Amino acid sequence: MVIVMAADATPDDIDSIVDLVGAAGGEAFVSRGVSRTIIGLVGDVDQLGTLNLRGKGGVADVVRISVPYKLVSRENHPDRSTVTVRGVPIGPDTMTLIAGPCAVETPDQTLQAALMAKAAGSALLRGGAYKPRTSPYAFQGLGEAGLKILADVREETGLPIVTEVVDAHDVELVASYADMLQVGTRNMQNFALLQAVGSSGRPVLLKRGMNATIEEWLMAAEYIAQRGNLDIVLCERGIRTFETATRNTLDISAVPVAQRLSHLPVIVDPSHSGGKRELVLPLSRAAIAVGADGVIVDVHPHPETALCDGPQALVDGDVRELATLARQLPPLVGRTLTPVPEAAPVR
Ligand code: PEP
Ligand code: MN
Q: Given 46, 174, 216, 300, which is the most exposed site by the fewest CB atoms within 10 A?
């Protein structure tokens, strides 16, 4: 941590900072410049953080040097992690495709979407039974009935399930069906939910808040990790900007930035970023090329009647193109496409 003193800071201001830090068990190194003094602090940053140095006389700025997240940081864990979801890896050696409907609507729609996902080369099935909707009048998801449909479709296709949980009270129930729990953009800073998924025993897909900085996203991951769960996959899904041509702006640079700062895998959701079908394949290419550990996309057998996010869902023709790029692009960036799991034998 570095304290930048104001140009008019007095020698007493500087001495009192040095004394305060010393009393808290830290060490202060004073560098007097021509116009300003800078004080370098060494010690327990969390402890020093409680001193509220920013509010002291003569202090212009307090700059943290070490990162505030620990467990998810790459500082103490230089190797990048692989998270395994019911045998399916998401990590630095592979490119894992995840596809499925935005929302579970009916058994047939979910099965058709899962077959499309498999045809695309998807190793996991996504699908929401609990939908966090902007409007309270919009379809909110089928709840547990939707989870049962997902479990049946997993049985039939062999695809493990990724599904969203929106309320800490539902975590146990959702975890009893799901292979991976999704925390959506609107809940990235729902700290009670983060703690609950941290204790769930299931891997977590943590979407970036649409208004969150990368540091806030990693701090959200830290809440999950702090409960003993390091099976976290980060998902960049677009952020709010001034641009209105797309639903959200895909922050493609967040992928290498987050991968440098954290050992956790980072995947991209081009469907919720662009919000338009015609953008999904170009953004998927960008995601694979930039080094994403996976891509998660919406597919739907009949997007024109979809209850949620039809305009961004891929249809059959797109799925064939997605299959081609998911097979061809990863080897160009030193990865292999995670294989589609075998369906369980019919009993
Ligand atoms: C979703 O994946 O279905 C979803 C709601 O995504 P997001 O939280 O990124 O909007
Ligand atoms: Mn959606």
A: 46
